[in-house]
Each structure stands twice: as structure tokens, then as C-alpha cells.
Specification:
Layout lengths: L5 E14 L4 E7 L10 E3 L3 E8 L6 E8 L4 E10 L7 E7 L2 E3 L4 E8 L3 E9 L1
Antiparallel strand pairs: 1-2, 1-4, 3-8, 4-7, 5-6, 5-9, 9-10
């Protein structure tokens, strides 16, 4: 039977850190939409994406694409996040580089494993 990696959760936040006393992730400023006064604008820089995955192997790699849903075009790709020997479930926190947004609409952070298998998406409305 083929193995199925599960994207258990995905969040976008302004700040994510590990509380060493409790070994818990603390996320502040979670959001799924942003309001801007003009275009073009930029998102990212201080924004982080949190993912929790199950049934993942040390040899697996994760790729994130930021997609303009209206044009179905990839605006940003962060590839080959190596899993290594992390214990299950695997928690990944990655900082999102600045991404230029030219118009209002729906955008998604699409998550893939090993270059091609779609695991899930996070929708951001601008």
C-alpha cells in the first residue's frame, strides 16, 4: 500500500516561536486576509508559514508555491525544504520572502512533496 503524507495543519502568522519551557509552538498574528490601500504592494519579509505533517520520511522534501489564483501563475517558489531526521509529527516553520502583489484577489500557498505530489493549500485574500 502506498504511503500518504498528510498535511495536518497550515497557518500564516506574523510571529512563530518555540516556547522552550513547554516545547510548544506559539503563533501570534495569524491571518488569512490582508487589506491594502494601493497596488502594487508586498507581503512577506516578517511573515512565517507553519506546517505540520504526518507520515513523512527523512528523505522527503517539501516545496511551497505562492500562486495567483486568478492567473494560475506561480509568483514565488520555496523549494526542497529537507525533512531530515525530525520526529513525527514534523513541524516546519519557514519565513516567507517578500512577494510583490499587483492586484486584489485570491492567492494560495500550495504545498507539494518530492516535487510533484500536492498535499494542500492555504488561501490568502488580498
Amino acid at each position: 500500500m502506498p504511503r500518504h503524507i498528510v498535511l495536518q495543519s497550515i497557518l500564516l502568522a506574523e510571529h512563530i516561536y518555540m516556547d522552550t519551557a513547554t516545547n510548544k509552538r506559539v503563533m501570534t498574528g495569524t491571518f488569512n486576509s490582508i487589506s491594502v490601500s494601493q497596488f502594487p504592494t508586498e507581503i512577506g519579509g516578517m511573515t512565517s508559514l507553519y506546517m505540520c505533517l504526518r507520515d513523512i520520511e527523512p528523505s522527503d522534501a517539501i516545496t511551497i508555491e505562492f500562486v495567483d489564483s486568478s492567473a494560475n501563475s506561480v509568483l514565488f517558489e520555496q523549494g526542497a525544504i529537507k525533512i531530515g531526521g525530525l520526529p513525527e509529527p514534523v513541524e516546519i516553520v519557514t519565513t516567507i520572502d517578500k512577494i510583490k502583489i499587483t492586484h486584489a484577489g485570491a492567492y494560495t500557498f500550495d504545498v507539494f512533496t518530492n516535487g510533484n505530489r500536492f498535499l494542500g493549500a492555504f488561501r490568502l485574500t488580498v
